[in-house]
Amino acid sequence: MNAESTSETGPIFRKLYITAPLGRGHNLDDLQRIGLTCSELTIGVGQVEPSPTRETPRSWRRRLSSSSRLSQPQERGPSPLWDTVRNALRRRSSVVSEDAVNAASLDISQLSPRTTREIRSSREIMAGMISMDCDISTSPVLPMPEPLTITTTADQRVVDTDAEGRAIDYWTGILACFGNINTLTFRVKGETGWPGSTNVEYVLTILRCAVERAQLPNLKRVRFQPLHAMGIVVMRWHGFGAIAQAPATAYRVWQNITRLDLQIHNPMAHLNDAQKRLFHKMLYDYLSSFAGTVKQLRFVWLDEDGPSPVALEQEAPISGIRDPIHWIKLEGLWLGNTTKLDYTVRTSIPRHAPSVRSLKTLRAGQGQTPDVFEDHMSWVEVVLPPEPLNRYGRDRASQGWWDVIDTDVHEEPRDSYLADSTRSSRDPDYI
């Protein structure tokens, strides 16, 4: 857990960064003491960066695989140890069974010192993987959940639902320590294609359910920097077929969000036609669930260009089967690496986002870093066409999205919305 301290009178923590799964050595008492002063919380989901004292399971798998430099020792030693480890690695499970750790406790005194160190290091990794994804050491506030067992057979994933419920309760208790946060950021390291349900998606589902159950009345901003295609699927809380049943408080939590930041890995190069159609539907449902409340939307595609979030209904996979999303309260829109910008400016915004006063687009070649939204030099202000007046002399914003734009109004030249570099962040209409 990392923290930034900003105070003139004392060590008051404003920004906190934690990872899921959490490592050992953290205590909920510490979170309760500093959580009330925290305003921004960042949760990293996925592969944890390796540290000098502990290896990640990925590096552990590389070291113990058959192609690794660490091959089966030639000394006289217990071969069941290596067989058990390799069998555990072949089972794509989120935890390793206790039998594997017991096997790792066999007598290794006959092995060389180097091999002994390798086995002991691997044993520590295995012991850490047995614990629950949200293991943060013994806490007097919440009991530690029992180990969760996830097994993979053919094309079916079997999850211990009781342990899943305990994990949700556990993370709900953790997030309850941050009752005053106004910004929640997820940094997700998932596979960019369509891998199906993996441990990353499982942890995201747990976190989403915990956010929906925790009391976070001040939460106004949610950021995903970045998120992958399957992350959209599991984070979708509204609509038919949403993963995990949302409680009654879910609507109140997500409808309280007024600022949404999304950096999404474009998966189209890895999907077939059916998967493309499904992804577009999931993205459409997720965005539409915020359309009635969000005032600022900052949206960037990673890897390659993708569709505009305010013109998503124009995409071929869902064209004709989805109506336009009406962004009733949207005032600020940032678009990065999106297609159909001309259609977005001339048609989608006037008709479906009439309250937009500020539009920014990302400069070419930018947007591949998590801090792209903080780098204002990478963005260009776009001058929107003037608002046409209807027959009563009122503009489109005062009437609402259902107004029909008068076709007799003179249309500005095509280049009227080109960037105006003279506008600054001190402009009253700047968002």
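The record above closes out task 2.4. Task 2.5 opens with a second protein, given below.
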Amino acid sequence: MAEELAVVEEHLRAAGDVLDEPAALGPHLWDRRRRAGGPRCSRGTRRRPGPARGRSLPLEEALGRVFAAARRVYGLQVHERTDLPGFVDGARSFEVRDVDGAVLGLFLLDPFARPTKAGGAWMNSFSVASSLTGSRPVVINCLNLARPADGEAAQVTRAEQKTLFHEFGHALHGLLAEAEFEALSGTAVPRDAVEFPSQVNEVFADLWRPSPASGSHLHPGADPHWGRGASMVEHLAAVVLDLVWHTLSPEQAEEAARDPEGFEDQALAAWGLDHPLVPPRYGTGCFKHIFAGSGYAAGYYSYLWAQVLAADAAEWFRTVMDDESALRKAGDRFRAELLRRGDTRELEESFRHAIGREPTLAPLLRSLGMTPPA
């Protein structure tokens, strides 16, 4: 027993040494943010960010990868229509054709930030596919990339490359829709079904980089899962806040509104999510998703459920990533059973038809580094 206690104490001292600061002075939230600046390594040290983490890519090359992935997975052909004027400077139009050459629709891209543009990245539909009316989809991805100086090529970071794949996943959801009624077509689905295809599309960025299992795209000794557990706790805390606020009676809500911070603290403590180093992603006072009529009230959990489904489907796709023929067959199946369906049947049923089984939590936990590899 004494030997076991000594081992525990040794580990505790080693963990304490990493903090550097005296125990009485921390750690605090700002310490975590500072230490997140570099990837954590196996011996408790940090390496400085290098080319693998900070590498940028020309926007044209990044777009080429996004479109090439759509070709390799779904057989789609994407060609720019320079004869179609953009609605603002820098906006571009692309024609999307099926494997047989038939026109599916138009994809518009508004990539650059400007003073009058909202922040973030999103997808919208100008026209929705409908077999009843014969309308074809016209969809747009809006981003806020830095506009390049005159004569220079636009660049995107690795995070922005991921955003390109994510938002084009939303675009594919609209472009490949085949529902009869517009109200059930494309992205006109519940929130979890909206985010699922876009998160799945992110996996195809791996077609141009070494396998995540190899770790060769990371710094030597870097942990590929560094920070993901904390990020998940942030997300879970936001989910809990959404649910507790929207399950109050009118009388309870009036009482909670007198001290919203106190109510928030009590709710997080009740769920074991009141860690001072990991606050919720959004506090009550700035939770626009659930209080500004954006449709996520009592539904912010949909992001998390979409992550469960997407991680499972991503593992399914990764099993055929190195086999072009098998990848195309998997893409055709995913398209037929899920992307084209819209809201004509339940998401879980479409998942079963596409993947061949019920979704499981294990792939998400593996992606977070919380379980041994499969």
